[in-house]
Amino acid sequence: MAENWEFLRQVPVFADLSPEELQHIVSLALLRRYRKNMYIFMEGEPGDAIYFVKKGAIKLFQVLEDGREKILHFVQEGEIFAEVVLFEGGPYPATAETLEDTEVGIIRNADMERLLSRHGEMAVKIIKVMSRRLRQAQEHIRDLALKGAYGRLASTLLQLARDYGTPREDGVTIDLNLSQQELASLIGTSRETVARILSDFKRLGAVGVERQRITILSPQKLAGWD
């Protein structure tokens, strides 16, 4: 892990630490590599570590009583996840699965707690991450309750573009390889419904789709459904 310490500056939680402090993080962190569609941890397993993404992307999801998958959110390079068990303890509340080949850093909770006792600003940053995700969860619950499938998908695509978008000449591409089933899981509908809505959005010139990458061509047209 020592040769990767400069990367830690790109993780907002660690951005303000000195080189010496970052080296201390390096001494605590384990680096692991996962292939696409591998599980990092499962819902219900003991929550004993906090994670951050060095490379790749991850989805966090829960399995509903009827066996369907409910995606909670996605995690990209530079973001932390499983932070809730750092303060709460107990089991992981969701399953983490890679969307592509991924490298993650792992810091055990006991080590992280000692680190936070010396760097209170890091604790504040982690709490801000948790607050942002709570706000997104509340907005998602509102969308599920108040919007139809078209509105939910439009709102979700716009949010993904804000969080994971890369500007292109023709629009903003969401830098996540998302299947129609994953989008369906995210907005609480069927894959067939997502396929039909995406087809309509494409026909209207609102989005483009190529190899599971979605480009927002006209945010204004999507906002009309939001």
UniProtKB/TrEMBL annotation:
This is Anaerobic regulatory protein. Keywords: DNA-binding, Transcription, Transcription regulation. The keyword NAD does not apply. GO terms for cellular component: cytosol. The keyword Plastid does not apply. Residues 13-133 form the Cyclic nucleotide-binding domain. InterPro entries: cNMP-bd_dom, cNMP-bd_dom_sf, Env_Response_Regulators, HTH_CRP, RmlC-like_jellyroll, WH-like_DNA-bd_sf, WH_DNA-bd_sf. Gene3D superfamilies: Jelly Rolls, Winged helix-like DNA-binding domain superfamily/Winged helix DNA-binding domain. The gene is fnr.
